[in-house]
User: Fold this.
Amino acid sequence: MRIRLESEDGALSPILGPLDTPGLAPGSRLHALVKNCLVRRNPIVKGAGVSGVYWPAEYFGLNHSSLFRSLNGDQQGAILGQCSHQLLQEAYYVEKSGSQFTAKMSLLAGTTEERMLFSLIAADEAAHLYSVRSFLTQEPAAHQELPFLKLLADIIENSSRMTLVFVVQVVLEGWGITHYRGLLERCCDPDLKAVLQEILNDEYKHHGSGVVLLSEGQLSAREKHEITETMVRFLEMVAVGPTGVVQVVEQNCQGLGTEARKALYEDLRSEETTREKLDLLKKLMAQPGVLDIVEALDKKGCFEPRLN
Ligand SMILES: [Fe+2]
Ligand SMILES: [Fe+2]
Assistant:
């Protein structure tokens, strides 16, 4: 996969290296160099003796599930560990995508200040990635297997500058603020809590800078079309509800029948929480100059939950 940069005639050409870079082998001296560069930022990493369960049943709404409550402690622990891994894996790829996003935005920047801004944000994202990675207790799945991350990689690779400002900085980093705040409030590991607080502080700045760039920029008709298409795909994924948690429960119970799955979605209050997420996205999208897009998506029913 290659990041593409837009030339003056609107054509896209591959310029940067691959988005899905592998990690270096543990013996590489580059690890120590990266660590030394990050020392000034005092990054927080995982302490000893962590079980891999970073969030309790309440975070996932599983405390309301009669099925979950009927399982023994080991089964509940396995489900919470896998749900925690899903969240960390997502954060890992989001932070990794942040490094790719800022690299592309630095090259696309039209002013010195904008290029400095994205270089500084790039350093934040590298520090977030360094910290989050230390909490993973197993290898993350390939990002192509994770629909949201695959979409995010596709957006970063193919979208033009102002589309990226709107979709990534204004909408997704704005969404990230609420998401990371929720993770922070319920997290049961003090070291990870400290990392989440750092990330949250930075994401406020990243989102805020996107709002400023959007207000001082101009969206072309092509970019508005690009934004509409992208948001339709993203909203579709949110509208289907907490499928990740349901999948984990299903795997640990050797499958669920139609009725049991329906009851689990209801116990998780899926309709209510999904509606809250879609409402938040609609609010984040409702920026001056973009209201026509929000209206068009509303007419298509994109802000309505579509649970299975
Ligand atoms: Fe970040
Ligand atoms: Fe960010």
